[in-house]
Write a structure and sequence with these properties.
Length: 670
């Protein structure tokens, strides 16, 4: 009896208390602690192979889980303390344990990779504000609600939960049984409540509608959509059937066992047709648009707004009232002004392409006369094999004839030392590599040019000169080897200087006087504001998407692991064959496009800020809008074959330099 009284007293009182965590000693770095050196690589490095930070939490409470879904690498439980490794830059940790809830500790700093931090935690008790309650039902499985809030269903006939002290409205519901509703008075010593449910008898009902999918309400209770089969108490009730764009039915229904009813719904939508030019777009209430007009569109009765747009024509805007069941046809034809374009070419078999700023396209082989050309600005492109492409822009004026005579110059459009990469669509990333390579996603890139070789030390010196501040920074010096030990800033500066020297328009606007707010890396001592004009004809770094597309061989490439082969020794200098140094560019086999060293030799800077991949399709992506690190690709002489795969990604802050890091030039195709 004494044991029973003690147990009841524990149920009544001990449940009124719970535990939670407190931090007894705030986080502090301990430079002298050697804990990181004792960990194996799986506990020390993140999935980007960067060393993490070690957090040691001293606490006598056992079985604590430490949570940070973004930054946590591993957790090791020790006697009286926990060792948690986190990614560089982590700002918080969450402590969790059954019966304690969770506790989030903000560090007030970003943790540094390779550092050890210490903090201490303990537990404390707090008085609960609610009382434990036990509900028993016969049969089991009844749903219990307190003050219209569900507490769940009884299992094994019982349901326990906590609620506030005092009078509470309780509802017990179970299909096939009468609902119990009453007020209970909850307080210490009055915490158990028993209920025996009485079986109810309902009629079977079947409600159908034509068309189906109507919402059915009986006695103000929504039972579902037609066709509906259910049970409901016998009697006479109000019934309502609702479906969008159909008249609502409201009437009485007498339910006996069984009841079968079918209702016919009346369509009240109007039918709208809008006729116009085939290249005009019709917008109904600012929707996505309908090229060439609208035919027999069903719409709810309303005042509909119609906009008709066509390139080079004045927009038409109208409002039309649609009554119930109305059939309305409208004709709206925007007027456009036109001119004539005459083009004569040498050689006579040259291809002529004419594109307008309104999306117009005309083409021919040899000379041509294009009539009824809408006014506006046009780009004329004339090209032929063995000749340089001619491009120019001009305006077409109302009722005027524009004449163009084009004599093509012999030669090639591809800049010396570059390879033309025809644009296309490819699957970027890999589901078989490291996590930053996932998910595989569809990317489309436009035409561009890319350097046949990595930028050499000779090319660097030709542009940057021989002064102390601009001289060759490479560790492994030789003119025909790739330039290395340069930062991302060095690379974009070189691009602009070479563009200016060759009379091209620089791609980069470099502002050294301001700090880039999009640069989030604390280790970058420059943080220049750099913007890229991808329409300029100068040199630039390839985007990450352009780099991978070119490395894979472009639209005609085969699915190889490395750039041009599945045998890495054919195409790359890496740790197993490099002799721990760089090598002359172009001494290994090129890929399908004739590009060398896209696997191995030196890593190659790209334009993009590092960011995680999206699963959605993209066109000419330029990377994340902000970040801490710039991308580089391709692997190098000092790492194993896995890093030389075409899908592998890596990155570092823009002012970082290393003797395994160089770059390759790209430029847009114009």
């Amino acid at each position: 009896m004494k044991y029973l009284i003690t147990l009841i007293l524990f149920f009544n009182l001990s449940m009124l208390f719970s535990s939670e965590f407190i931090i007894t000693k705030k986080i502090k770095e301990n430079p002298a602690h050697l804990g990181l050196q004792l960990l194996d690589d799986d506990h020390k490095y993140d999935n980007n192979h960067k060393i993490g930070a070690l957090l040691i939490v001293r606490c006598g409470v056992k079985n604590i889980r430490f949570v940070n879904s973004i930054s946590k690498i591993a957790q090791i439980d020790k006697q009286g303390e926990y060792w948690i490794t986190l990614k560089r830059g982590a700002r918080y940790i969450v402590l969790k344990k059954d019966g304690f809830g969770s506790f989030k500790e903000q560090f007030g700093m970003k943790l540094k990779g390779g550092s050890v931090y210490e903090m201490s935690a303990d537990e404390k008790f707090k008085q609960a504000t609610q009382i434990p309650v036990m509900i028993t039902t016969d049969p089991s499985g009844a749903e219990v609600s307190i003050n219209n809030a569900s507490k769940g269903r009884t299992s094994g006939g019982k349901l326990s939960f906590t609620t506030k002290e005092g009078k509470q409205n309780i509802k017990i519901e179970f299909d096939g049984f009468e609902t119990i509703e009453e007020t209970i008075n909850v307080r210490i010593g009055e915490q158990s409540f028993d209920y025996k449910l009485v079986e109810a008898m309902d009629a079977t009902i079947s409600i159908k509608s034509n068309p189906s999918g109507a919402d059915v309400w009986i006695k103000g209770i929504k039972l579902g959509k037609t066709p509906l089969n259910a049970f409901f108490p016998e009697g006479t009730y109000s019934i309502k059937l609702e479906k969008e764009n159909y008249e609502t039915i409201n009437e009485q229904i007498t339910i006996t066992d069984p009841t079968n009813k079918t209702y016919s719904l009346t369509d009240i939508r109007a039918t709208l047709t809008v006729k116009t030019h085939k290249n005009a777009t019709v917008y109904i209430n600012n929707d996505s648009g309908h090229k060439g007009g609208v035919k027999n569109m069903k719409l709810s009765p309303q005042l509909v707004n119609i906009i008709v747009e066509m390139p080079k024509a004045e927009t038409i805007k109208k409002s039309v009232l649609l009554d119930k069941k109305a059939n309305v046809t409208k004709e709206y034809y925007p007027e456009v002004q036109t001119g004539i374009v005459m083009v004569n070419v040498i050689p006579v078999n040259a291809e002529v392409l004419l594109s307008g700023d309104g999306g117009e396209h005309y083409n021919s082989i040899g000379k041509a006369t294009f009539i009824d050309v809408p006014v506006g600005t046009y780009e004329l492109i004339v090209k032929a094999d063995g000749h340089k492409t001619h491009k120019e822009s001009f305006k077409v004026n109302t009722d005027k004839t524009t004449r163009k005579q084009v004599l093509l110059e012999e030669g090639s459009d591809v800049p010396e030392g570059f390879v033309f990469v025809e644009g296309g669509t490819f699957q970027m990333g890999s589901n078989n590599g490291y996590s930053p390579e996932k998910p595989v996603h569809t990317v489309t890139v436009s035409d561009f040019y890319i350097g046949k070789y990595e930028v050499t030390q000779k090319e660097w010196k030709d542009i940057m000169g021989t002064s102390a501040s601009l001289s060759n920074p490479s560790y492994y010096k030789r003119d025909n080897r790739p330039v290395e030990s340069i930062s991302w800033y060095d690379a974009v500066k070189y691009c602009n200087l070479r563009s200016e020297k060759e009379g091209l328009t620089p791609c980069y606007d470099i502002d050294k006087t301001r700090k880039d707010s999009n640069n989030k890396d604390k280790d970058d001592d420059k943080k220049w504001v750099v913007k890229c004009d991808f329409s300029a004809n100068g040199y630039r770094l390839p985007t990450e998407a352009e780099w991978e597309y070119a490395a894979r061989g472009g639209s005609s490439g085969s699915p190889t692991k490395y750039a041009g082969s599945n045998n890495i020794n054919e195409v790359a200098w890496y740790d197993s064959n490099s002799g721990r140094k760089t090598h002359a560019v172009g001494t290994k086999k090129p890929n399908e496009l004739g590009i060398y060293d896209m696997s191995g030799n030196v890593w190659e800077w790209c334009w993009d800020w590092y960011g995680t991949y999206s699963s959605s399709s993209q066109r000419n992506p330029h990377g994340a809008n902000r970040g801490s690190d710039r991308e580089y690709r391709g692997g190098s002489w000092d790492l194993n074959a896995n890093y030389c795969r075409v899908a592998n990604r890596d990155c570092y802050y823009p002012s970082y330099r290393s003797n395994y890091l160089g770059f390759r030039l790209a430029c847009s195709s114009k």
